[in-house]
Amino acid sequence: MLIDIHTHSLAPFPDQIRMRCLDPTAELDPVCEQLKQAKGEVYSLGIHPWKADSWTPLQVHQQQALWAHSAVKMIGEIGLDSRQGGPFLQQVSIFEAQLEMASSLRKPVVVHAVGTTEVLLSLKKKYPDVPAWILHGFRGKQEAAIQWLRHGFYLSFGRHYNEEALKKCPLNRLFLETDTAEMDLYAHYVSVAALLGCSPEALEDAVTSNYNRLILS
Ligand SMILES: [Zn+2]
Questions:
Q1: Dihedral pair phi/psi, residue 105, rounded to 5°
Q2: Which listed site, 18, 152, 153, 173, has its alpha carbon 20 to 30 Å from 130?
Q3: How far apart are CA 164 and CA 141, in angstroms?
Q4: Structure pTM?
Q5: How far apart are CA 100 and CA 49, in angstroms?
Q6: Quick one: which of 191, 155, 189 has its CA closest to 170?
Q7: How many angstroms separate the alpha carbon of residue 61 from the centre of ligand 1?
Q8: 40 Cα: distance to centroid of ligand 1 (angstroms)
Q9: pLDDT tens per residue, range 166-184
């Protein structure tokens, strides 16, 4: 089964697993309704760093039941962005509130990270109980990929990526995603498999076993 580890689309895709990203910032009611009606769909839920200034850590903890919902398999997208969004320290405090939940709920995080390598590496050390950190939409060069991989991160590649960086990512640390792009997921698997010199089926098997290892059913 093809897996898309990060999408903002709520459209149905039969015979595929799409990790649909919900942001509770917009309005809580539609998010609660979506989760209530989930029939086998899987979700990641998180406050994007660009929206961090509309929350306090206390409000995040008050909504813990949302993140604890059984259809919410991952927490995200969450993270840090030094170039956009509100004050950086506010971003850090909302990110940490969600990392605390990821630790206690034992759910992996899908991370938006722009210009924040040092802080992110120190937070990863500070929250060792977060079961996995997936850097989504990875576009960095191979040196950056090697560094993140060395620190235990998973990398997820969307429409735009650096080919040399992708080739450095072992199959057991790799995910694919569509994010906000309207793109054919299977075609994405085919082109990445061609780059890696394996069959689309072998790539699909590898991503599926990563998914099964990280995502609690
Ligand atoms: Zn996204």
A1: -90, -10
A2: 18
A3: 7
A4: 0.95
A5: 16
A6: 155
A7: 23
A8: 21
A9: 999 999 999 999 999 999 9
Distance 179 CA to ligand 1 centre (A): 5
Reading the block at residue 164, the tokens are: 């040399």
Cα distance between residue 168 and residue 44, in whole Å: 27
Q: What residues have CB less than 8 Å from 59, skipping those under 6 apart?
A: none
CA of 6 to the centre of ligand 1 (A): 6
Distances (CA, A) of 150 to 110, 131, 168, 195: 18, 16, 11, 22
Angle at the Cα of 15 (from 161 to 216), degrees rounded to 5? 75
What residues contact residue 31 under an 8 Å CB cut-off, 6+ apart? 22, 23, 24, 45, 66
- In the reported structure, the alpha carbon of residue 4 is separated from the centroid of ligand 1 by a whole-number distance in angstroms of 12
User: What pLDDT score does 217 carry?
Assistant: 58
How many angstroms separate the alpha carbon of residue 77 from the centre of ligand 1?
A: 6
Distance CA 4, CA 175 (A): 8
Is residue 110 within 8 A of residue 136, CB to CB? The reply is yes
